[in-house]
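Students often ask what a holo structure prediction actually looks like on paper. The answer is less mysterious than it sounds. You provide the chain, you provide the ligand, and the output is a string of discrete structure tokens encoding the 3D arrangement of the protein together with zinc ion.
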Amino acid sequence: MSHPKEFDAGRPVVLRGGTVLTMDDAKQVLPGCDVLVVDDRIAAIGPDLTGPEGTVEIDASDGIVMPGMIDTHRHMWQTVMRGYGADWTLTQYFVWYYLEWGKAFRPEDVYAGNLLGAIEAIDAGVTTTVDWSHGLQTTQHADAAVDALQDVPGRFVLAYGNLAQAPAEWTTAPEFRDFVGRRITGEDMLGFQLAFDVTGDPAFPEKPAFEAARDLGVAVTTHAGVWGATGDDSIRLMHDHGFMTPETVYVHSASLAADSYHRIAATGGSVSVSTESEQSAGQGYPPTWALRAHGIPVSLSMDTTVWWSGDLFSAMRTTLGVGADRSREHLEAHAKGETVTHAALRAEQVVEWATRGGARALGREGDLGSIEVGKKADLVLIKNDRSPVMFPLLNPYGHVAFQAQRGDVHTVLVNGRVVKHDHRLLGVDLAAARRTVEQTVEHLRSTLGDEAWEKGMNPDVSETTILDNPYTYTDYHSASTHGH
Ligand SMILES: [Zn+2]
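The corresponding structure tokens follow.
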């Protein structure tokens, strides 16, 4: 039954008898329920469904069927350096990529990182990933990034960026426009955004980049509210010039004053929270508590596997409790001598942020992010018959947020196609990906030399370079991003 060839012909698929987290408006949880997929769509939801002739059966009993997860901010090109920066601060990250070694990445290295990042995403049930691709020094790098995304059967959004140049420079270059014309065809599996940051420089040097985005009709995604880099001045400039729109995605959005949250809320944008990143790198406290208070829509992201894990189970878990929202709530209460008796943030909410929240951020709520008839069949089955952690299955949202791991991702469908089944990726050559990645690691190691390579991975705290601003196209320093 589980032979991969069964899935090759685009045959209908039924996920039989799982607990279905629909994430629809009514937040229906349907035990013992089937989900029928025909072509690229969800065709039916209900008990004992009969599919068309030739429907492939997948046993979902004792498992959870949920919408494919959506990561709205991942620097996929950095996947080739998995775990390298585990002990970095944000400053050390900026020094390594922005000032010293980011330029060492050739197009084939961006390809290698994106390939591994894309495979990793679908393996973990992340069916849509925004590739926050700020390593695109040339359009040859951008072609390589897209080549990799198209070599893996996931859904991706290329958020085009270039940390080596000013946003006004690369967004207005003829070769960039040529790239957009050649590679961004409106095809459903590859979305497009512009990715750049706003320094807060009163001259607003990023203005032409916003105009380019408006001209192309695409959303801007921007690291906002990052201590030491971007802050309230950045938000104010965007707002004053009319560039804050409902499509804008603000990444992190920690270290911001209430005024900035008001501006985000009033203009309808959303925030991509990367809790593991904010907890450890220093952008500011993970801001879900502030976003909930201001009614700002939230999606989740993992940022980069150069430090952290690349799966949204970790994002849900850390955002909910281990380090962020509930932790802060308890600490604030204790400081006042009080006790939190009822948790404000519920497991259901972080599952919603990891699925529908991402769809909303990308303007895809109409066809992604929930399990409803007629929507795209981007689906995840969490089921592991060999795991003692898969039963009893009493609280499905709690199970997803606190119990499940990427190893429990049994089956993944993207656009109606089974890309993982029985814990094995289908149509993915992992050995070839490994060889590609190894070539890039060898290139980086030999370019840096052994000493710089080891020193980069094991930063000496006492010799940390002091960096006020990673954006070398302006000398601007803001009190709102540095405190004084
Ligand atoms: Zn980032």
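The radius of gyration is 22 Å.
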